[in-house]
Amino acid sequence: MLDSVYLSLALYFIVLLGIGAYGYFSTKNDVSGFMLGGRQLGPAVTALSAGASDMSGWILMGLPGLIFLVGINGIWMAIGLTIGAYLNYRLLAPRLRVYTEQLDDAVTIPEYLERRFNDNSRIIRVLCAAVIIVFFAIYTTSGLVAGGKLFESSFGLSYETGIYLTALVVVSYSTFGGFTAVSVTDFVQGCIMLVALVLVPVVAVLEIGGVNTTITQLQNLQPSLLSFQDTALITVVSAMAWGLGYFGQPHIIVRFMAIRGLKDLVAARRIGMSWMLTVTLGTIGVGLTGAAFAAANGLTIEDSETIFIVMSTTLFHPWVTGFLLAAILSAIMSTISSQLLVSSSSITEDVYYAFIRKKASQKERVIVARLSVVGVAFVALFLAQDRSNSVLSLVGNAWAGFGAAFGPLILISLYWDKMTKNGAIAGIVCGGLTTILWSNMNVSLGFGLNTSDVYELIPGFLASTLAILLVSMTEKHSERFEQCHHNVLKKLQN
């Protein structure tokens, strides 16, 4: 069996490396080409690459594991994320695409913000780069942890071998192919994830004996798996608050900067939301049918985050199993590659080029970007040595950090022309620090609530928003931006 699985995975890796080579030879060897693909992404690639880079290993491991344990009480996070993704397409995507092009073709989020606020001090750029590098190190670590668990539970390899193998493949195609390779591989990986998350729960239900038998099995196992009755309001609010994080995720919103034009965003939104709804329902199905399947077959699941792996290896022919395990790798690798690329872009443009080598050529900056991909991967490998880390917990921390530090900042900057530089700085600092402090506090809030009951993104997002508004209203805004704002609104209307 393992020989067939290994062979199918080897073929998958060859395809990824081939796409990396395609990206290397098809894209101009300059900064815009390496970091944004020359702003030539089509709607389908934009949609699925945004979705695949968003979902990561938690969509096939973390969230199914949560549903496996708590049942439909765990769907609130999925609902919040779906709403957040839709609002991201509606509110942020069109304006960010136009603004970044208007502001001298800004290729990174820190570069956009620096030009947006005419920040000659470069403080905003430094703060943004620091947030990106720190939180992406954590985020990338979550992907490697998921990869390590996959290879350990499925192939009998050591956890350490798993994280190194995952990193090796991702770094290879990301380093050489740049943004084009990352986006195209994300598209392929998104397609694989879609098929896998439809196939596994459907086959599981058929194996158990049909829908009615599956429901009966779940009710006999634990009635609360199909009930909302014990769900506290604060639990629902905290879970749905994950949707707020979308506005501040650099590896997702960079896709909106790279799409060909505004008209393509409409098609991208429709494709992206259709894909996300299908994938999310499939994930919920995996968790629920996994609980029923394990009970029906007397299986002991020691780590709930491996339920998709257990079902894939138990229900299917080895060749199909290899395809399904490739779906997990797809989710993991698509996110890691996007994060590595955004991190390297920030290191190159916002640190090296902005402060160390202001006269660096395009070719030199691309070389630095490639080396930075490798450097960030090494940091993530070091952090991933602790296999006790929960995939969902690591993702939650990084998601909250980006959502609070960047979400209100980017959204308000696109709509309010009176926002000031100091307001932006206050938003970054207050949002980022609040999430870090909140996640490490254990303080009673009264009414039987503790800080650990409230997802840190909520206080972080509120603190950042208030800081931006209060500081900006006490200062005079820069008039330089008003003309750019007028041009953007005019282009959006056309």
UniProtKB/TrEMBL annotation:
It holds the Pfam family SSF. It is a multi-pass membrane protein. It is found in: Cell inner membrane; Cell membrane. The keyword Plastid does not apply. The keyword Hydrolase does not apply. CDD domains: SLC5sbd_PutP. The chain crosses the membrane at residues 6-25, 66-87, 123-142, 162-184, 191-211, 231-254, 275-296, 316-336, 367-384, 396-416, 423-441, 453-471. Gene3D superfamilies: Sodium/glucose cotransporter. InterPro entries: Na/Glc_symporter_sf, Na/Pro_symporter, Na/solute_symporter, Na/solute_symporter_CS, Sodium:Solute_Symporter. It catalyses: L-proline(in) + Na(+)(in) = L-proline(out) + Na(+)(out). NCBIfam families: Na_Pro_sym, sss. Catalyzes the sodium-dependent uptake of extracellular L-proline. Belongs to the sodium:solute symporter (SSF) (TC 2.A.21) family. This is Sodium/proline symporter. It comes from Alteromonas gracilis. The lineage of its organism: Bacteria, Pseudomonadati, Pseudomonadota, Gammaproteobacteria, Alteromonadales.
